[in-house]
Amino acid sequence: MPGQTKGVYAPLLTPFNDDLTVATDLYVDLARHLLDEGCAGLVPFGTTGEALSIGIDERIDAIRALVDGGIDPGALMPGTGVSNLTDTARLSRACLDMGCAATMVLPPFYYKAVSDDGLFRYFAELIERIGPAARIFLYHIPPVAVVGISAQLAARLHERFPEQIVGIKDSSGDWNNTLSLLDIEGLIVYPGSELPLLDALELGAPGCISATANTNAAAIAEVIRIFGQGDMARASELHEYVAKYRQTMLDRHAPIPAQKRLLAMGTGDERWANVRPPLTALPDADGRELAAALQRVSGTRREQGPG
């Protein structure tokens, strides 16, 4: 499991060259920047990383580029779940062999209305194929995958495989579901957003895995740090800012092209605006409008005083 579980994990955006190959130079640069900004770790190839638009070998090569670029593999929890056992196991083993702390695994999502028994068999077989070194964070994102991982299934898997099924990312957006997961003894639970962060921290969550950490990591990390110091007034004030930032980011634009456009503007490297089909890039004018809106949110934070 990750050596440092407490904090914010960024589901790393994946940059593409103009020919849509992975731009590993930008990838390594972003990873370094986010760790410097206070991220406890990174999740390459989650939903925000356009994972299901990227091939197995491409993902392995990109993780290797991160490690070769000086990124500590112990800070990495790559997404490895696809819709079949063979590729999920191969990708997971490759990441673990490179020293990654854990993998984040979607349920098999092509066949719908499958039973918890069927999903249990899938993960049991996956662990068998990976071997005892398996360290899996389940990935529950029913708004996208449709197939989900119930709290009952998560508890059953963790009880049967406590050393292999170590945690879950809950991107359901359903606080009651997060509460049910937090009741599972020994299971590490990361909400998939910073919006419920303070409530989750109070109930024992170590942090969150949030898409907007790609562009607002330092502030989210600071909320968690200040909470740990027991200063709830300051933590609440800063949390209001990070919540407003997220809401502004997602108000009119999808988070992947929006944040990529912001990175293109911030770095001056237009490759950052590239997305793989079927996604489409955010126009520059829309990016400038979004940047101005976020600047107004940041200005409000500065008027309130230092965090």
Q: What would your notes on this structure say?
A:
By secondary structure, the chain is an alpha/beta fold. It is 49% helix and 9% strand. The protein has helices at 24-36, 56-68, 85-97, 116-130, 142-145, 151-160, 175-182, 197-202, 213-229, 232-250, 255-267, 284-303, and strands spanning 7-10, 41-42, 103-105, 136-140, 165-170, 188-191, 207-209. A four-stranded parallel beta sheet has the order 3-4-5-6. It has a three-stranded parallel beta sheet with strand order 2-1-7. The two termini are 31 Å apart.
Cα separation of the termini: 31 Å
Strands across the major sheet, in which order?
3-4-5-6
Q: What's the story with the biggest beta sheet?
A: 4 strands, parallel
Mean pLDDT: 95
SSE sequence, one letter per element: EHEHHEHEHHEHEHEHHHH
Q: What share of the residues lie within helices? A: 40-55%
Rg (CA only): 19 Å
As for the number of domains, it is 1
CATH topology: TIM Barrel
The chain-level structural class is: alpha/beta
Low-confidence regions: 302-307
**How many strands in all?**
7
Molecular shape: globular
CATH C-level category: Alpha Beta
CATH superfamily: Aldolase class I
Explain briefly what this protein structure is.
The protein has helices at residues 24-36, 56-68, 85-97, 116-130, 142-145, 151-160, 175-182, 197-202, 213-229, 232-250, 255-267, 284-303; strands at 7-10, 41-42, 103-105, 136-140, 165-170, 188-191, 207-209.
Layout of helices and strands:
Elements: E1 7-10, H1 24-36, E2 41-42, H2 56-68, H3 85-97, E3 103-105, H4 116-130, E4 136-140, H5 142-145, H6 151-160, E5 165-170, H7 175-182, E6 188-191, H8 197-202, E7 207-209, H9 213-229, H10 232-250, H11 255-267, H12 284-303
Parallel strand pairs: 1-2, 1-7, 3-4, 4-5, 5-6
